[in-house]
Every structure is written in C-alpha cells, then in structure tokens.
Specification:
alpha/beta, 9-stranded mixed beta sheet, two-stranded antiparallel ribbon, 12 helices, 11 strands, about 15% strand, globular, Thiolase-like
Length: about 400
C-alpha cells in the first residue's frame, strides 16, 4: 500500500528480563523481547516485513533476524550509540509512511553486566583508535572524561552547581522507587551523591548510569493495522536526528548537545511546542546529560537547566516528569538504552505504568511525550514526539 501519507503508530512494546540476568545470551534477550512485543500488539509475526537492530553480531541485523526467524524486506542497522533507536524509529516511520514497509520491529538485548562479571569482556577506555579519534586516545581521554569536561564547562559558564547535578540522580531514584522493574529503588539524597567515590571530576558514582543486563522491543506499523491491534495506538508525530562531532576539538560548544537540532526538527514536524509535552524520556548516562538536554529541547532556557531540575520539577507529580521509570541512573542501562525511552513513553501514554503512572491536571492521562536519545559523548541525537489517541 504505497503512500507517503500513511500514519505510523507504535502498536507493540515490551521489556525482556532486565537487571541481573546471568543465564541468558544477548540473542535470547532479543528473542524474548520480540515475542513479548508481538504478543503485546496482538498482531501475527507474518505482518513484520521490516527489522532494525544494532550492536550484536558481525552482520547486524542479519544475524539477529535469522535468529528470530525473520526474513525482512526492509532493514536498518544504523549505529550511533544511545540515540540509535530514536534514529531507527525515524527511519522506520519514514519507510512505513512511504510504503516501503508495513510493520517494523526494533529490538535490543545486552548482557553487558553479566559479561563483565563472568570475565567474558572487560571495560574499554575508548571506542577505537583509528580515524580522527587517534589524536585523542593516546592521552587517555575516556568517554566519561568527555562528559565530565562538558559538565565543568556548563558549571563555569552558567553557575550550575554540583548540588543541582546531584538533584538529577536523586529524582531519578525517586521515580525508580515506583517502578518494580528498576534495578535500584532505595532513595538517595544529594549528600549521598556528593559524598560518593569520585569517578571523573565532577562525577561521583551516583552521577553515572548503572550497568545492567536487559532488552526491549518496539513494533511500529502502518495505520491500517491499528484496528487489529490489542492496544490503543501511540502515534509517531514527528522525528529529528542530528550528528555534530566525534572529536572534542570539533565540538563547537560543550554546553550545547545535538538535541538542540534534533529536538527542534521533531517538534516542528509534529506541530507541537515543548510547553505542550506532558512527559520526557531523556538519555541519562550521566546527570549532566539530563540537565543539558532539557535546555536543548526547549523546556528551559540555555543555562537554566540547573534551576529547572530543582524542587522536584522532574518527578512523577512535577511540572515535567522526566525518566519516569528511573532512567539509566537507576532503572536499567544495558548499553544503548535509547529503545527503553520509547518503551516507557508509550507505556505512560497508554496509562499502563502502574504506580509510576503520570497524570496531568484533572487526573487525565498524558497525551504527548518526547523521547530523546544521545549517542557517544553528545555526538548524535535522535528525538521522537509521540501522541496518544
């Protein structure tokens, strides 16, 4: 049914087992998530003619599709770090709208935590030492060091404080307390964050994401499949993507992330303003990422992110609930976490989030959400605006 005007909906979502998963392979987590997403959608696997995967296998997504028993006629293996899944969702929505695919399955699984515990892999200091990165790697400039430098620049430029950055971690943990699937749920205080072991100045341990195992899947489909689905659709209203740099020397401004571009594009294409958004799911490998992305998406002015995250504004009952499942700081972070942002946004818009369900004034369910993923060290960004109804 070729048509450049077909609407696209998220019709199935799922989590695979998450947290501490010592007995499954990444392939098994992919399969578990895929089966659950299809079951959630109520559609038969035969409708899936598109597949998107990254991060597993030599020929991703070929190997994963084979493992799942799929033979897609549309594929995507775009790999841009944590923003991969928002970018893939954008590509899939465009393909479905154009009639190049009817239903696209996005799936991810990782045993990052279990592999390190079992000695199957070790930590790495960098993504590689070829190309432009060869000029940074010899100096031990690790990924976390790059985020730490950016955070310090924001503190210098705008007076952002360590306490404000710590508030991001405190609120993420408070949100996780209402999520039975979150890996860490015990409350933490600003003092707990500030007094923790230093990892990369100014980041102590609780400023950094957790390491977990886990997987998830999202099924997108054309509008004509919606009457046959088991759940109410959540529509893809607008998307945006942007890449800005790979080396720190080419990053024009450490206080501006590529979400400043991807967010603007997504909101413009969706025809909505940031002020209309009911909740935001933001990639949070480090506390600074949440703060600066809030600025760049337009929820507050540049330099005001520190003040914005104070006083519970990003909590479940705040004016803009952020990372309602606890985010990568407390819920789960098995690697490229961007797909989890989409799952949680859809769950909230459906009203299926249980104790952590967001309600807007008058007790109504949220109607608009944004998921914004970040890759590398603010190298790439993908933003998706979703709507209920």
């Amino acid at each position: 049914m070729p048509s450049s005007h077909r609407k696209v909906a998220v019709v199935g979502i799922s989590l695979a087992d998450c947290g501490r998963v010592d007995t499954a392979t990444p392939y098994a987590l992919h399969a578990q998530a895929a089966r659950r997403a299809l079951a959630d959608s109520g559609l038969d696997r035969s409708v899936v003619d598109g597949f998107a995967s990254a991060g597993l296998g030599t020929l991703a997504p070929v190997e994963v599709a084979e493992y799942l028993g799929l033979k897609p006629t549309w594929v995507d293996s775009t790999s841009v770090g944590g923003s991969t899944w928002e970018v893939m969702a954008a590509h899939a929505a465009d393909a479905i709208a154009a009639g190049h695919a009817n239903a696209v399955l996005l799936v991810y699984g990782s045993t990052a935590r279990a592999d390190i515990k079992a000695g199957r892999r070790t930590s790495n200091l960098s993504f590689g030492a070829r190309g432009p990165l060869q000029f940074e790697v010899p100096y031990g400039h690790s990924l976390i060091a790059k985020y730490a430098m950016a955070a310090r620049r924001h503190m210098h430029e705008y007076g952002t404080t360590l306490e404000q950055l710590a508030e991001v971690a405190v609120q993420a943990r408070a949100n996780a307390a209402a999520n039975p699937d979150a890996m860490f749920r015990d409350p933490v205080t600003v003092d707990d964050v500030l007094s923790g072991p230093m990892i990369a100045d100014p980041f102590t341990k609780l400023h950094c994401c957790i390491r977990s195992d886990g997987g998830c899947a999202v099924l997108l489909a054309a509008e004509e499949y919606v009457p046959d689905t088991a759940k109410a659709p959540v529509w893809i209203l607008g998307t945006g993507e942007h890449v800005s740099h790979s080396t720190m020397s080419e990053w024009d401004d450490f206080t501006v992330s590529p979400a400043a571009v991807s967010g603007r594009l997504a909101f413009e294409r969706a025809g909505v303003r940031p002020s209309e958004i009911d909740l935001a799911e933001i990639y949070d490998a480090f506390t600074y990422m949440t703060l600066v992305t809030l600025e760049d998406l337009g929820f507050c002015a540049k330099g005001e992110g520190g003040a914005f995250v104070e006083k519970g504004r990003t909590g479940l009952t705040g004016e803009l609930p952020v990372n309602t499942d606890g985010g990568g700081l407390s819920a789960c972070h098995p690697g490229m976490r961007g797909l989890f942002l989409l799952v949680e946004a859809v769950r909230q818009l459906r009203g299926e989030a249980g104790e952590r369900q967001v309600h807007r004034p008058g007790g109504r369910l949220p109607e608009l959400a944004v998921a914004s993923g970040t890759g590398g060290w603010f190298c790439s960004s993908g933003t998706v605006v979703l709507g209920r109804g």
